[in-house]
Specification:
The chain has two domains: 205 residues, Spore Coat Polysaccharide Biosynthesis Protein SpsA, Chain A (Alpha-Beta Complex); 74 residues. Helices cover 46% and strands 19% of the residues. The protein has 13 helices and nine strands. α1 links the parallel β1 and β2. α9 crosses α12.
């Protein structure tokens, strides 16, 4: 059997409410020459049943399972099964536009030197339905990404956005299973540090659900994970500016998630203290984040979530 054009790797852990829609967004791609490797990471909800049902209907689905070991170990297990020339990663609650893989395939055919590609992301409510308006969109950075960009803001935003040449993955290795936070940034930074180009396409191809709780908004752990990442890859002189930008991001996340107003303000002030110029360099993000963090002290939590979403 000839290998597929794409291997799509999806770690799954207790994602039942979103899983059907996410899998369908993969299976209905306009470039359907793919294998979908579902890695059950010890789910205790209905996720496994949903995956088994869909796998019985579509031969492109390969289902593997492991005890709960975390997302890095799940992705690595998926990579060990991947046969495609290009590998795409997908989180179990995100959504792809139907043309995503086709556009990435064309992009890599036109730019064979590019090791990985990403696109624009729409940030949507956790319970958004098809056609619902996005809250905001990511920015695609011109040219190949630098290690500094990956560490400070990570323009790729999520692994659901990334398509990578399989030979590149074989060269740089898998994900670090000893990291619970920033493991995706570490892998991307490693790829760039090995002189592999990651380039973006300015097209909206991914919808990212903004979860109001859970792993993605454990801000203190995210910050600790980021500092571990910075210690591995950031030049000592660039750490303050990179941390300022990352703290600005954490402040915005705190506002969107409805965290206590003092938390949002504390991250904003930490960013200012780390490197004021870096924090405020992007006026739209810098000044608006700072003003919003101060204003949040006067706004009830329920109103903050709606206003800052």
């Amino acid at each position: 059997m000839n290998p597929p054009h794409f291997s799509v790797i999806m770690p799954v852990y207790n994602a039942a409410p979103y899983l059907f829609a996410t899998i369908k967004s993969v299976l209905t791609q306009t470039d359907g020459d793919l294998e979908l490797i579902l890695v059950d990471d010890g789910s205790t909800d209905e996720s496994l049943g949903i995956m088994l049902s869909l796998a019985s209907e579509d031969a492109r689905i390969k289902l593997v399972s492991q005890s709960n070991q975390g997302v890095s170990a799940a992705r690595n297990l998926g990579l060990s099964q991947a046969r495609g020339k290009l590998v795409a990663f997908m989180d179990a609650d995100d959504l792809w536009k139907a043309e995503k893989l086709e556009m990435h395939g064309f992009f890599h055919a036109r730019h064979p030197h590019v090791a990985a590609s990403y696109a624009q992301i729409a940030f949507i409510d956790h319970d958004a339905k098809p056609g619902d308006k996005a809250k905001t969109y990511s920015t695609v950075t011109p040219g190949p990404l630098t290690v500094e960009q990956v560490i400070a803001e990570n323009p790729t935003c999520t692994m659901s956005n990334l398509v990578v040449v399989k030979e590149t993955i074989d060269a740089v290795g898998g994900f670090r299973s000893d990291m619970s936070y920033a493991e995706d940034q570490e892998w991307i930074a490693r790829l760039v540090s090995f002189d592999h180009d990651i380039c973006g396409m300015d097209h909206h191809l991914v919808d990212y659900r903004m979860s109001p709780n859970g792993l993605s908004v454990d801000l203190s752990a995210m910050h600790a994970g980021w500092r571990s990442l910075a210690s591995l890859y950031a030049d000592h002189d660039t750490v303050p500016s990179a941390e300022a930008i990352y703290c600005r991001y954490l402040s915005r996340r705190a506002l969107r998630a409805g965290a206590p107003a003092k938390v949002a303000l504390s991250y904003a002030m930490r960013g200012i203290r780390s490197d004021r110029l870096a924090f405020l360099k992007d006026a739209r993000r810098g000044w608006l984040t700072l003003i919003s963090a101060v204003a949040a002290l006067l706004i009830p939590r329920s109103a903050r979530i709606q206003f800052f979403a």
